[in-house]
Design brief:
Length: 237
């Protein structure tokens, strides 16, 4: 059984998509990041970066003690190896996937995240910051669109066949309007996006998110918890 510490955000959706795609049994432990639950001492023990998602595998393959993991990329890689799904074992094919997984972790996720912040949450509209992250998001969409054009004949997903690289990238394209992008400018990305969105496992993953998501918009209190954290925020928790 996988215990998943989760909140319905793009990084959270990555893992529920994987779990729904594979049918691996799991139980969600909601971590309400707007209420500061990411600072609970028990959570920090497994997720020292005070970010979700995180997970505990209570039945690891080696039969030993439970394994806990934080960082969505590491979780996807672990679960893919555990199940033998969505990450080929042969080095050539494996790294064709992993390079795009790390591209998402180091590029698309952080840049689109700053885009969301300055476009939607920052108390002042700072044109330079908005422009910088809207443009960088746009560049990354172009990179992905080009890659999807090149894999068209070999499966049509990021690395050819559907993989954890797709599951990492897709949730960060879902808010494309919020990111001030136009999916219709990227025909291959649009095709890929529509294909993934229609998958029953992806539909289920987002339904699960909707059941947990608060209906009210982010409160000022939640913004105080989420933005402006420093080193002392975690050490005081
Ligand atoms: N690189 C991390 C990022 C995780 C992350 O940023 N999670 C956000 C929600 S998407 C979070 O838990 N935020 C809580 C906070 O800012 O205190 C991953 O991919 O797992």
């Amino acid at each position: 059984m996988i215990e998943l510490f989760y909140w319905p955000t793009p990084n959270g959706h990555k893992i529920t998509i994987f779990l729904e795609e594979t049918g691996l049994p799991y139980q969600i432990r909601p971590i309400n990041i707007g209420a500061g639950e990411q600072f609970q001492p028990n959570f920090l023990k497994i997720a020292p970066n005070n970010r979700m998602p995180a997970m505990i595998d209570h039945a690891p393959a080696d039969g030993g003690a439970p394994i806990s993991i934080f960082e969505s990329g590491a979780i996807l890689e672990y679960l893919a190896e555990k199940t033998g799904k969505f990450l080929p074992a042969a080095p050539r094919e494996k790294f064709a996937v992993l390079q795009w997984l790390y591209w998402q972790m180091g590029g698309l996720g952080p840049m689109a995240g700053q885009n969301h912040h300055f476009n939607n949450y920052a108390p002042e509209k700072i044109p330079y910051a908005i422009d910088r992250y809207v443009k960088e998001t746009n560049r990354l969409y172009g990179v992905l669109d080009h890659q999807l054009a090149t894999t068209r004949e070999s499966g049509g997903f990021v690395a050819g066949a559907l993989s954890i690289a797709d599951m990492a990238a897709y949730p960060w394209i879902v808010p494309w309007k919020q990111q001030d992008q136009n999916l219709d400018d990227f025909p291959h990305l649009r095709r890929w996006f529509d294909t993934i969105r229609a998958r029953p496992a992806v539909v289920r993953a987002y339904e699960i998110g909707e059941e947990i998501r608060p209906t009210a918009p982010m409160t000022e209190e939640a913004k105080k918890i989420l933005f402006g954290q420093t080193a002392t925020t975690t050490s005081r928790a």
